[in-house]
Amino acid sequence: MSRAALAAFDPLPFRSPTPPQLPGYIPIEASVPCAEPFDDRDWLFSVDWDGARALLFLDPGGAVRIQGEMPNDLARRFPDVSAPAAVRGRRGAVLDGVIAVLDQEGRPDLAGFGRRLAAGPTAAADLPAVYLCCDVLHLDGRSTLGWPLDRRLDALSEL
Fold first, then answer.
1. pLDDT tens track for 93-140
2. Alpha carbon of 89 to those of 59, 81, 85: distances in Å?
3. Whether the Cβ atoms of residue 74 and residue 66 lie closer than 8 Å to each other
4. How far is CA 118 from CA 47, 72, 125, in A?
5. I want to staple 100 with a disulfide (CB 3.0 to 4.6 A). Which of 30, 51, 57, 159 is the partner?
6. How far apart, in whole angstroms, are the C-alpha atoms of residue 159 and residue 141?
7. How far apart are CA 44 and CA 151, in angstroms?
């Protein structure tokens, strides 16, 4: 078919699908202390790490946003957390976890975290922060909050 004949046809409506948007803000769920210790097969327990609770928003295009308890973005304050996360993968996700500074034995160090907060992002070389992830709240354009926790943890381990 000639180019002139092809030009007479309407172009096909090809459009790349628009990637789903990540949620703008998700309130951070607070831990609820128990009156006394207990053990139950119907409950899963996690460690309460020393540091700051934060949500890590990973855009499929590589952008990263870190939300603390307030909706402001903490990515500039913790470039050592946001930069590696940007190259981690190309899936959209919202991860729940804790930003921490580790001591010499690899344990979260609350005093070190406090020094890092006081010093700001320039202290990243001396007091590097890590992200200890414990849950996935949003994945590939869909909320996972309705999923059972074991399914969310499986999805998290795949990430």
1. 999 999 999 999 999 999 999 999 999 888 888 999 999 999 999 999
2. 9, 14, 8
3. yes
4. 25, 18, 14
5. 51
6. 15
7. 13
Q: At 150, which amino acid appears?
A: D
Residue 53 CA: distances (Å) to CA of 26, 42, 69, 74, 78: 12, 25, 7, 11, 13
Give the predicted TM-score (pTM) of the model. Answer: 0.78
DSSP the chain: --HHHHHTSPPP---PPPPPPPPS--PPPPP---SS----TT-------SSEEEEEEE-TTS-EEEE-SSSSB-TTT-HHHHHHHHTS-S--EEEEEEEEEB-TTS-B-HHHHHHHHHH-GGGTTTS-EEEEEEEEEEETTEE-TTS-HHHHHHHHHH-
131 C-beta neighbours (distance < 10 Å), count: 19
Is the confidence at residue 36, as pLDDT, over 90? no
